[in-house]
TrEMBL record:
It comes from Rubroshorea leprosula. This is Bidirectional sugar transporter SWEET. GO terms for cellular component: endomembrane system; plasma membrane. The keyword Lyase does not apply. GO terms for molecular function: sugar transmembrane transporter activity. Mediates both low-affinity uptake and efflux of sugar across the membrane. Keywords: Membrane, Repeat, Sugar transport, Transmembrane, Transmembrane helix, Transport.
Length: 239
């Protein structure tokens, strides 16, 4: 029979694999931007938000905040690097006004993160540090889970799932479920809150898909690329 530690690690590795795939899911979109040398109507805000979100989960995964969280640390470090590459591609092919706005946001995020790290390290002892950082992580995750709501509204209004790809929706739901399980094996309230909500929203998204797939025009079914500004899925946070 598996020990608690072994089960915890196995589930965490599965979660890493799914999250790895989710982080790489926008690659076709950015490859299109590179080929066209144009960002078109692409909206960088969700990716900028994910950069900061990953940074805080990286901090949460460090031994100076919480011990035995290496799997949380590794996948979010990977996510941070990937998201920064996406943002870098946007900066390379966007016009000056858009580029300056993104750089301003990145600068603001950097200052905010450094300030929060200093507060966590200097104002809190180790036993309370995870509480402070965990609350910040959950607040950001909950805010980010609001991004699919616009897509849900579009699905309901158009009665079409064109901009809600099935496999990404399924992966987002699975991601939330796996990390919820991870949080329950060795109880972690902050990972549980974040991913429990993600699993619920991911489940709702799959229900919407089932309801509106039959009414989606045939030419749009399975159109998984979508517009980069449209595809924001529930449960797509790494942790």
């Amino acid at each position: 029979m598996l020990s608690v530690n072994a089960a915890h690690n196995i589930v965490g590795i599965i979660g890493n694999v799914i999250s790895f795939g989710l982080f790489l899911s926008p690659v076709p979109t950015f490859w299109r931007i590179i080929k066209k040398k144009d960002v078109e109507e692409f909206q960088p805000i969700p990716y900028l938000a994910t950069v900061l979100n990953c940074l805080f989960w990286v901090l949460y995964g460090l031994p100076i905040v919480k011990k035995d969280n290496i799997l949380v640390f590794t996948i979010n470090l990977f996510g941070f690097i990937v998201e920064m590459i996406y943002v870098g591609i946007y900066l390379l092919y966007s016009e000056k006004k858009k580029r300056n706005r993104v750089l301003l946001i990145l600068g603001g995020e950097s200052v905010f993160f450094v300030v929060m790290v200093l507060i966590a390290m200097l104002a809190f002892k180790f036993k309370n540090r995870a509480l402070f950082v965990g609350i910040i992580c959950d607040v950001f995750n909950i805010i980010m889970y609001g991004s699919p709501l616009a897509v849900w509204r579009k699905v309901i209004m158009t009665k079409s799932v064109e901009y809600m790809p099935f496999f990404l929706s399924l992966a987002g739901f699975a991601n939330g479920c796996i990390w919820t399980t991870y949080a329950l094996i060795k109880f972690d309230l902050f990972i549980l809150i974040s991913n429990g909500l993600g699993a619920i929203l991911g489940g709702i998204q799959l229900i919407l898909y089932a309801c509106y797939y039959p009414s989606t025009p045939k030419k749009n079914k399975g159109k998984d690329a979508g517009k980069p500004s449209e595809v924001q899925l529930a449960g797509q946070n790494a942790v």
